[in-house]
Design brief:
Blueprint: H1 4-12, E1 19-25, H2 29-38, E2 46-52, H3 62-67, E3 73-76, E4 82-83, E5 88-91, E6 98-100, E7 105-108, H4 121-132, E8 136-140, H5 152-157, E9 161-165, H6 174-181, E10 185-189, H7 191-210
Parallel strand pairs: 1-2, 1-8, 2-5, 3-5, 8-9, 9-10
Antiparallel strand pairs: 4-7, 6-7
């Protein structure tokens, strides 16, 4: 059996993931993200990192909620380094910040997220944009507040893209509205349309890489 250090070395040697997609949400987020996943094929070249404002004790329920009646897999990040892989949704922990590597290895830290939100969408976007650059897609779903808006310009400066759920389809629209107010959102849609947009986006990018 490989030791944890040997497993991490093996992960470090893996090729970079094609794309990483942050699913950012707060109030009303689980229903919106579940609808998004139900409409999204699970065999696309993208790894998903779900950042949901939620009570830490409620986080354990999210994996079961997300994958019910679809083909996705989901895990909550806890104590050990974990690899982002296509076809799986990793859930950012509420009480521990994450470090990120370009090959998709995420490592929980012994520090909490900065700022008032736990987990911090703003901090995840900032760190992910620094590591993944133009391979980063951020989708802002239903939620309250403006978490993430402070990092929007940095994400697009690194050639990442930001999309948002339409206000009319949100349980609470203040978070996607705040992101739209930054001027950095390039597409708006319902959870189902956002899933369709991501699929088409990845198909186009895959064709461009093979030319």
């Amino acid at each position: 059996v490989a030791t944890p250090s040997a497993e991490l070395v093996a992960q470090d040697s893996q090729p970079k993931l094609p794309y990483i997609c942050i699913l950012a949400a707060s109030m009303g987020g689980p229903n919106a993200v579940k609808a998004f996943l139900d409409a999204l094929p699970h065999d696309l070249p993208v790894a998903l990192l779900y950042v949901q404002h939620i009570d830490p004790y409620m986080q354990e329920l999210l994996p079961r909620i997300l994958v019910r009646q679809n083909h996705w897999r989901s895990r909550l990040i806890k104590d050990d380094p974990i690899q982002l892989i296509a076809g799986e949704v990793l859930i950012a922990p509420a009480t521990r910040a994450l470090s990120m590597q370009a090959n998709g290895v995420l490592t929980p830290l012994d520090t909490r997220w900065s700022g008032q939100y736990q987990p911090s969408i703003n901090e995840v976007m900032l760190r992910a944009s620094q590591v993944f650059g133009d391979r980063l897609i951020t989708i802002v779903f239903s939620g309250m507040g403006d978490d993430g808006s402070q990092s929007a310009a940095h994400v697009t400066q690194q050639r990442g893209v930001i999309w948002a759920q339409t206000a009319v389809t949100c349980d609470c629209a203040s978070q996607p509205n705040a992101m739209r107010a930054t001027g950095q959102v390039s597409f708006n849609g319902s959870p189902e349309l956002l899933a369709q947009k991501l699929q088409v986006f990845l198909e186009v990018k895959t064709m461009e890489r093979t030319k």
